[in-house]
Design goal:
5-stranded mixed β-barrel, 2 domains, alpha+beta, OB fold (Dihydrolipoamide Acetyltransferase, E2P), 3 helices
Length: about 140
């Protein structure tokens, strides 16, 4: 079997293994094996192929992996969707109890329940959105 084909198989196995680990290390090694397969197809001797693999893998692990991990582990910069509504102020359109009610959040009417089921929030009260559960806002009166 030709050396370039062996390196190509090694690259494919490493890339497939990367899909299951998601660490970026095996994918980088797969890229180094692919680079080595290309050099082997050009007729580079076996000792030099190992050198190409070693240099490629080392460069990838030292320079590319930290960059990839930094991008993956970056905290979410901004909340969006219903998560963005949590913590915002709302206006009680109708009486809000533990059983139900209506509030206006950023100009939109939402069904609501009091976060503390014993509370009765009268209409016109400014409330804070504590949580969104489905299409219902759980609210608590602002002090």
């Amino acid at each position: 079997m030709d050396p370039w084909l062996i390196w190509l198989i090694i690259a494919a196995v490493l890339v497939v293994a990367e899909i299951f680990t998601v660490t970026a290390a095996l994918g980088i090694l797969g890229g180094a094996a692919l680079l080595t397969a290309a050099s082997a197809s050009l007729g580079v001797p076996l000792a030099w192929q190992f050198l190409v693999f070693t240099v490629g893998a080392t460069a990838g692990l030292v320079f590319v992996r930290p960059l990839a991990l930094r991008l993956v582990n970056r905290p979410q910069a901004e909340r969006f969707g219903v998560d963005a509504l949590v913590g915002s102020a709302a206006y009680a359109v109708s009486e809000v109890t533990g059983a139900g009610g209506r509030v206006r959040i950023h100009g939109e009417d939402w069904t609501a329940r009091a976060y503390d089921e014993a509370l009765v929030i009268p209409p016109g009260t400014i409330v804070d959105v504590i949580q969104i559960s489905g299409a219902t806002a759980l609210v608590y009166p602002r002090e």
